[in-house]
Design brief:
single chain, Immunoglobulin-like, six-stranded mixed beta sheet, Rossmann fold, TIM Barrel, 21 helices
């Protein structure tokens, strides 16, 4: 038996044997994302490019979950794995069906290029809604659990292969990403930009890492010796394969100007560990071998890594031996998955304001509801980008109509275009304002649905991006939305603002004037149902903000500045409009009796936190206990999230929670990028929000403070 067919051998041995049997030309073309068949060896064609950011994407019907930034608002790592497990189940089901009908097209493989674990460092970045937010700890925890859900826990086979992207230091501007050099200090690299990738590799054993388009500190990421060799392979001992972002390698010579042409570019990428070319430029590797710029052995090594992934997926084994091959197509979009999707939509909703407990609404006291705004009946604002096709979409308008039935009259006005000054091209500006005013006048309560959609924020080149290549020029509501919101408010009727967006908006006027505000993100295909249930009290809001809502973009550093100073809750100086970690509930929770098992830190023992949380409210709900660490040193971050625990509590119920902090959770990276446990004082805060003054004012809660010390000398922490 040929070694590559021998299932008793390791995948690595078999892959190495198979790669050695290929001609140079065959090897080269196996490193393209659309790898052709090699009939003489029984190798089927395979397309590595597939997407599963919040559901199986771009390949027909699938369960379309809330966008990633929304999933992050759940602050629930167990639930994130449950979502990802559902996604990979549908991915396997679709793959099994596609193989049956010999469909090996793009978006039809089992290598899912998700999750995006870049840090959402600037709210203007258009792709931030693909991420898990601005915090390295939260991103790490959710990224790890998402990968574990995608890849599964079988002892031998991967259910699907996940991909941590975009490595590294990638967060805009979108229109410069092909030529931009993201310059970051060693301290910021280690403190902010690399931790999530490290966790994905070291903890989750992610199978694939994707390089970014930009340069980082002078090196193009998809050909960076520092990132791909020194850190990823040598320091973190990554064993999987690396893929380029799509057509990123040609940027080396066309935009970054670090090589003289395509032959040099492909050699630079693969010599530094980029195994797969998303694109078609790797054909130049044949000429690169002829010119002595790369060896055939190096190409063969990349091919072996790629075959190892496919073998882990069971694609070279007896089909009866692979436990995922019997997942039927009928599980796609099944009743169970739709129910999970609705639950996800419910868990992510963030209640930002609820003056005088105007929410939940009392259905028995309302005869007419006005639903107004460009996102009231906008399917695009349900799903974000990198989405699949849902079999059913429930907008906010549809969700409210369905919920109230014939008992309450629902009146609707689009109010305005999402970003232009008119809806009808030949009309004057403000051509729906009169209608919006009329609907408000007729209504007992108004649900105002404003914000963004993926036509405004997204990836450069996405169809319909009307702003700065998908980035936001500022944090304001686009177009005339604020004017229409003010006109609705002037009616004197109670107004509930529902924001659908993938990023933070500076809604200071609304915060001062509108009695209730809900941040709905891009809540998934079932989002309208979830929002209606929240408005009428069938569910208790539990979402927490994974990003800071700033008061204005004026306080932000330059978009192109990758220094973390002044950015995110960890380094900002000004008071937030709505802070990271913030979100209200219809219940009232108290965290008390927070203690730890030691007052002195050391380098070898965890600090074990215990606390009591009680639901003082009249309804059950879920709350997130959050643990923050503050190092009392000049120029240290404000506070850093280091622990989360989602707790379900019935009305009046009390539970004890335990959260362990590792010694490295108290360390800080110095200017050389080395983590140090410094001699001195530390503060640990345990509560349901950040320990900043704005969070405490909004929630009327004060996290419990625990003081710790480290009496030893400054000590390097080896992680």
């Amino acid at each position: 038996m040929d070694k590559y067919k021998d299932e008793s051998l390791s995948f690595e041995e078999r892959a190495k044997d198979l790669a050695s049997r290929l001609t140079l030309e065959e090897k080269v073309y196996q490193t393209l994302h659309g790898a052709p068949a090699i009939d003489r060896l029984g190798i089927r064609s395979y397309n590595y490019w597939n997407e599963a950011l919040h559901g199986v994407a771009r390949a027909g019907v699938a369960t379309v979950f809330p966008q990633a930034i929304g999933l992050a608002a759940s602050f629930d790592e167990d639930f994130i794995e449950e979502i990802a497990d559902c996604i990979s189940t549908e991915g396997r089901a679709k793959f099994n069906m596609q193989q049956q009908y010999d469909d090996t097209d793009i978006y039809k493989g089992l290598t899912f290029w998700s999750p995006n674990v870049n840090i959402f460092r600037d709210p203007r970045w258009g792709r931030g809604h693909e991420t898990f937010g601005e915090d390295p700890y939260l991103t790490s925890r959710l990224g790890v659990r998402f990968i574990e859900g995608i890849q599964g826990h079988d002892e031998r086979y991967l259910k699907a292969a996940a991909c941590a992207k975009h490595f590294a230091v990638h967060s805009g501007p979108e229109d410069e990403r092909h030529s931009f050099d993201a310059v970051a200090s060693a301290q910021d690299m280690r403190e902010t930009y690399l931790p999530a990738f490290k966790a994905c590799v070291k903890e989750a054993d992610v199978e694939v890492v994707m390089g970014a388009y930009n340069r980082t500190n002078g090196e193009p990421c998809c050909g960076s010796k520092t990132l791909l060799k020194d850190i990823l392979r040598d320091e973190w001992e990554f064993k999987g394969h690396v893929t380029s972002d799509c057509w990123a390698i040609k940027d080396f010579h066309e935009h970054h100007m670090v090589t003289d042409g395509p032959v040099e570019s492909v050699a630079l990428a693969m010599n530094n560990g980029c195994d797969l070319n998303c694109g078609n430029i790797n054909g130049n590797l044949i000429q690169a071998v002829e010119k002595g710029l790369i060896t055939e052995d190096t190409i063969e090594q990349s091919v072996a890594r790629l075959y190892t992934t496919r073998m882990k997926l069971g694609l070279f084994d007896d089909p009866s031996h692979v436990p995922f091959n019997d997942i039927p197509y009928s599980v796609v979009d099944c009743v169970k998955h739709r129910a999970l999707n609705l639950k996800a939509s419910e868990k992510i909703l963030c209640l930002l304001k609820n003056e005088n407990n105007i929410l939940p609404l009392d259905k028995g006291k309302i005869k007419t509801i006005g639903v107004i705004g460009p996102n009231a009946d906008n399917r695009r604002s349900l799903v974000g980008n990198y989405e699949g096709t849902a079999s059913e979409y429930i907008t906010v308008l549809e969700g409210i109509r369905e919920y109230v039935g014939d008992d309450i009259r629902v009146m609707y006005s689009e109010g305005c275009h999402i970003c232009r000054d008119r809806i009808s091209g030949l009309a004057h500006d403000n051509d729906r304002t009169a209608e919006a005013k009329a609907v408000a006048a007729e209504s007992d309560v108004v649900i105002a649905c404003f914000g963004l959609d993926p036509s405004l924020e997204g990836e450069e080149g996405d169809q319909g991006n009307e702003f700065a290549s998908g980035d936001k020029p500022n944090l304001e509501l686009p177009g005339i939305q604020l004017d229409v919101l003010k006109a609705i408010y002037a009616s004197g009727k109670p107004v509930i603002l529902v924001l659908l967006s993938g990023s933070a908006l500076a809604v200071s006027w609304a915060d001062e004037n509108i009695p209730a505000i809900v941040q709905g993100w891009y809540p998934g295909a079932q989002g309208g149902r979830a929002i209606a249930k929240l408005l009428f009290g069938d569910i208790n809001p539990e979402g927490k903000l994974p990003v800071t809502f700033y008061r204005t973009s004026e306080e932000l550093p330059d978009f192109r500045d990758y220094s973390m100073k002044g950015r995110t809750y960890r380094y900002m100086k000004n008071e937030a409009l709505y802070p990271f970690g913030y979100g209200l509930s219809y219940s009232d929770y108290d965290v008390t009796n927070a203690t730890c098992d030691r007052n002195a830190l050391d380098c070898s023992n965890n600090v074990n936190i215990k606390a009591t949380i009680k639901n003082n409210g009249k309804i059950s709900g879920n709350e997130t206990v959050q643990v923050y660490v503050k190092v009392n040193r000049p120029d240290a971050p404000n506070y850093q999230l280091k622990g989360i625990k989602k707790v379900h509590l019935e009305a009046g119920e009390t539970k004890e929670v335990e959260i362990a902090l590792k010694p490295e959770d108290f360390g800080l990276y110095n200017e050389d990028g080395v983590k140090v446990l410094y001699k001195g004082d530390y503060e640990v805060y345990v509560g349901t929000c950040q320990p900043d003054t704005r969070s405490m004012k909004l929630t009327k809660k004060t996290p419990v403070r625990i003081d710790l010390t480290y009496d030893g000398e400054d000590t390097i922490i080896v992680e």
